[in-house]
Fold:
Amino acid sequence: MSVTIGPAGGQKFEGGVVGFIGLGVMGRSLAGHLLKAGYPLVVYSRTRASAEGAIAAGAQWAASPAELAPRCRLIFTMVGLPRDVEEVYLGPSGLLPKAAPGSLLVDLTTSTPALAQRIAETAAKRGILALDAPVTGGDVGARNAQLSIMVGGDAAAFVRAEPVLRLFGPTIVHHGSAGSGQHAKMCNQIMIACTMMGICEALAYAGGAGLDPQLLLKSTSGGGAASWSLQTLAPRILQGNFAPGFYVKHFCKDLAIALAAAKEMRLDLPGLALGEKLYRELAAAGHADDGTQALWKLYEAKLPKQN
Amino acid sequence: MSVTIGPAGGQKFEGGVVGFIGLGVMGRSLAGHLLKAGYPLVVYSRTRASAEGAIAAGAQWAASPAELAPRCRLIFTMVGLPRDVEEVYLGPSGLLPKAAPGSLLVDLTTSTPALAQRIAETAAKRGILALDAPVTGGDVGARNAQLSIMVGGDAAAFVRAEPVLRLFGPTIVHHGSAGSGQHAKMCNQIMIACTMMGICEALAYAGGAGLDPQLLLKSTSGGGAASWSLQTLAPRILQGNFAPGFYVKHFCKDLAIALAAAKEMRLDLPGLALGEKLYRELAAAGHADDGTQALWKLYEAKLPKQN
Structure:
């Protein structure tokens, strides 16, 4: 079932060449969906090796965002950190100085609401539309086109982007003006951080009580504790699979953004503060490049020694 | 789909009269499922008014657990606090002094692992079988017979109880010896406490950022933050419905049990400690008889005043 919440409009996919910048774990899957849908695609990624799959599947390579920009009417970006977003949009080889008036830029990265606002304002001055459109659903959701997409920015831009965003997932929500997609994503990350904390603590308790953790997942996955993380990430913990679906380093960045924004709003969010602290400790302990399920490592390291 | 994990055996429902003690929000639904399945039922509840629905549907009334015990081959209990469990099983008008040898007692209450062990040992000395079998899935799960049931105790007792437990829900897991069902339930409650904290903090953040909370539920309920609580309890928060599916006072009791057990295991579980503290504050602020979703009230009370 496909659900769009926002201004109605575009029923048809926009024509023309599409650009995609950032071919990491998730970007790669999304670029694949665009190619499969028949879009002529131009790609750029910081390391060219990441683009090889897309190029083999028919995408063109661009040497920089600035070189990619004028070739496309619609450009998606999905990079790592806010400073990467800033460089890709506003830097000397960035998109905004070179994008064609009337073109539409959609940032799928989780980044700061303030930067999303700055990009939208800078773009508007040049007759370019920009949306912040972070996603949730993880590597699995990206691969299976089952993402939920939280969009902030101009309503007319939303109407144009929506039919293409539908290739990435069934749930597309327009949250309001520029930056509001990022704010919604912060809410999402706050929930995930607390849920992951609960899962790791439940597994630590289970170990202490001598319970079989596999049985615990069976008995708890269908009740009041059911969650995407319990279903998807807890089994990876039990398999010892800490490969990144979503990087600890990126999650740390998200939680720091959320915590800073909450402070600005004078909100007391102790669960977020604790989650941010634990993930920061986890990154400092050498797990920055693991997936978020590696939070378990922090608890495992603190388990009392068996005699 | 029905999943049983544990020793195989009983394919048929056990015959004979069934007892049910404790007809609160959840017990009432479960007694209803037994009546619908055709079991002759004897009920007892601390307040007789709670039993009126069951009596109207054909159940017999007993004046005390001691009076109920000898009339039944299989007895379920679902009461409030560990001290209630203790009284119902071990007190002067309790089950154990009067239950028939060979009968089977199944406690569905969330209680302490140590008490579950004590009951099982006392029962065994009299040739009675006792299981701890706390459930998860909330009021909705009880009504729709969609609970998951975490069972601790003797394997032969599990085999006898399982076909009847199937009337309450599709997932029935034997976790091991007496008390292990309660330990599994503690893991479940740890996860729920952290998840609820994340949901309330996300809603507080959404308010601060000026997001429509209904839209937030739409965009986050299908992604990485998806959870039973987000799906089931967050909409109640937005409707201002704080009626108990599961009481704050009972959840406080569960979290205190979990925290005490974790301390005994020398585990450092900061998320549980924070959740326990917040729910204790919530109860102290006058919300003990609300549902667990009332945690929102604690955050709401701390929101910065709008100018």
